[in-house]
Write a structure and sequence with these properties.
The complex is a heterodimer. By secondary structure, chain A is mainly α. Chain A contains 13 helices and 2 strands, in the order H-H-E-E-H-H-H-H-H-H-H-H-H-H-H. Chain B is mostly beta strands. Chain B has a single domain, classed as Cupredoxins -  blue copper proteins (Immunoglobulin-like, Sandwich), CATH 2.60.40.420. The chains are: A mainly alpha, B mainly beta. Chains A and B meet through helix 1 and helix 7 of A and helix 1, helix 2, strand 9 and strand 10 of B.
Chain lengths: 284, 260
């Protein structure tokens, strides 16, 4: 066992030497689709667009940070809300790319669609250099999102029972208005107050807007916030039931919800400027 | 010549990178030390008998802290389990200000000696909407087993500075969750659903730590000779530090007094 591991190490070292790269480049390559991120180019963009809030050290202490609530993300700890990976794991490149692209509702983080895809990939590559975790830890496998079950009355009813059983109401409130008995006590991992999501407002979620995104939020949790992962408590079928029920709480949601397909299409069609942005303004 | 040295550097760097990979780091090995022997020789300090003892008490002086009442009305399931009023157990004192639930540990003097974590898991239980124990001591890379014995859903949310943060929901009747922490630190643990639930998981890379009992007493056993810094930590009162020099087979007594 030990020997085979050793051999694997030696093979790895050899591969590194042949590739001509040090260990740092091993884990930090950034790929989105066919694009490869370049941290040095990302640094230039970061210095121009991100440094004001996230700071030169990536610790979320930029000069604007004191005026901002919620506070800018500290990249050094490697803790990220929007992931496709289990709680406690690092996000994938795609997760970070989508966060930069989407921005975060109810925060000062805008959507960076005005930047080209290549620029956003470069930014992801640079942001990853702030945390040693990306060098030290293997990326985790994404949480699988199985195909959605039928959203019928029975499913919604089961979801409503789960909302009660899983104590979702303790923070989000009996009607999902973000006014549960524990809502006022919630703080993020830096001790700043953080309100639970108010479903009645109908705004999109922090980490996306499709049913698939909602499923993922339930199963991965939003690390750094009080929202836990339900991966050890819900079966995939139960999680879909809960998704269907949660949708019924969005009583003020006005716009048509995009399906996973249209989101995928939207992603692949995202262009630097112009119509794309206007399109988004209508949808969000 | 220069290129050979450069090559060696690269190999060393690569070996370092691999040795810190978590899957390698997480592997556990059975403890091979003989138990019950009076004098034991440390693997960490080869050839040095580890038979010293540091024991003593932790006390607090000054006006007594009045325990506050915990209101569990937010979750009827929790309220039902407590017919009598529940008081906070943040500060528990006995006669002479003896302080329970302080952690006493060696903070310096271990050097780079490394210890394999125990193979048995450390257990952290959610019971009657409180943590049992409130203060858990465990080792880095040891398995942490989380148990929910309540008829309500909890979430276990450790908020570390030096380890990865995670947050897991655990409904009633679900099987235990197993986790671990890679690095040393005292980690606050919360249940966001039940804001009164507070606990700490103290993670050490060595076995020389103890949590004071209701008489404020602690004992660090099997300590090899050497110079150490010993700290006493309490969640409300902070940290006290003392230095101690231990000869072979020596037992030393320390007293820590938090002044309010």
């Amino acid at each position: 066992m030990k020997h085979s591991r050793m051999r694997a190490h030696l093979a790895g070292i050899l591969a590194l030497l042949l590739a001509g790269g040090g260990p740092a480049t091993f884990a930090q390559e950034t790929h989105i689709g066919g694009l490869t991120g370049e941290a040095s180019r990302g640094k230039q963009l970061y210095r121009r667009y991100c440094v004001g809030c996230h700071g030169p050290l990536g610790d979320g202490r930029g000069e604007n940070a004191v005026w901002i609530d919620p506070k800018p993300r500290n990249f050094v700890t490697g803790t990220f809300k929007c992931r496709s990976t289990p709680t406690g794991a690092l996000p994938t490149d795609e997760d970070l790319y989508m966060s930069v692209t989407r921005g975060f509702v109810n925060s000062n983080m805008p959507s960076w669609l005005p930047l080209t895809e290549q620029q956003r990939v470069d930014l992801v590559a640079y942001v990853k250099t702030f945390s040693s975790s990306f060098r030290e830890e293997k990326p985790a496998a994404p949480v699988p999102v199985p195909s959605e079950s039928a959203a019928n009355q029975q499913s919604i009813q089961r979801g409503s029972e789960l909302f009660q059983k899983m104590n979702c109401w303790a923070c989000h409130g009996k009607e999902g208005r973000g006014d549960g008995p524990s809502a006022q006590t919630l703080v993020d991992n830096r001790g700043y107050p953080i309100p639970p999501y108010d479903f009645s407002g109908g705004t999109r979620f922090k980490c996306g807007e499709s049913n698939q995104d909602l499923y993922r939020i339930l199963m991965t949790g939003l690390d750094g916030t009080p929202m836990p992962s339900y991966a050890s408590g819900l079966t995939p079928a139960q999680a879909w039931d809960l998704v269907h029920y949660l949708r019924t709480l969005q009583i003020n949601a006005k716009h048509k919800r995009p399906t996973a397909d249209s989101e995928q299409k939207h992603r692949s069609e995202s262009k630097p400027v112009g119509e794309e942005l206007e399109g988004r303004a209508n949808r969000f | 010549m220069g290129t050979i040295i450069k090559c060696l550097h690269l190999i060393a760097a690569a070996i370092f990178a691999f040795s810190t990979a978590p899957d390698i780091a997480r592997r556990t090995m059975a403890i091979t030390r003989a138990s019950g022997a009076t004098t034991r020789t440390s693997e960490a300090w080869p050839g040095v008998p580890e038979d010293g003892t540091v024991s003593g008490t932790v006390r607090v002086t000054g006006p007594q802290t009045v325990a506050t009442r915990i209101d569990m009305a937010a979750d009827p399931a929790c309220l039902k389990m407590h017919p009598a009023p529940v008081m906070s157990d943040e500060v528990v004192t006995g006669p002479n200000g003896a302080l329970k639930n302080a952690i006493v540990y060696i903070s310096e003097g271990i050097g780079n000696h490394s210890f394999d974590p125990p193979t048995i898991p450390a257990v952290f239980e959610q019971k009657a909407c409180t943590y049992n124990p409130r203060i858990l001591g465990m080792r880095a890379r040891q398995t942490l087993r989380l148990i929910n014995s309540d008829p309500t859903t909890h979430n276990i949310h450790p908020v570390p500075q030096n380890n990865r943060e995670w947050n897991l929901s655990q409904p009633p009747g679900s099987s235990p969750i197993e986790e671990s922490f890679a690095r040393e630190e005292i980690i606050p643990v919360k249940c966001n659903v039940h804001p009164w639930m507070k606990g700490y998981i103290a993670v050490f890379k060595h076995p020389y730590f103890a949590i004071t009992n209701k008489d404020g007493m602690f004992e660090l056993k099997n300590v090899p000779r050497g110079e150490y810094t010993i700290e006493a930590w309490h969640e409300k009162y902070g940290v006290l530090t003392q230095k101690v020099t231990l000869e072979t087979n020596q037992a030393k007594t320390l007293e820590f007094v938090f002044k309010r």
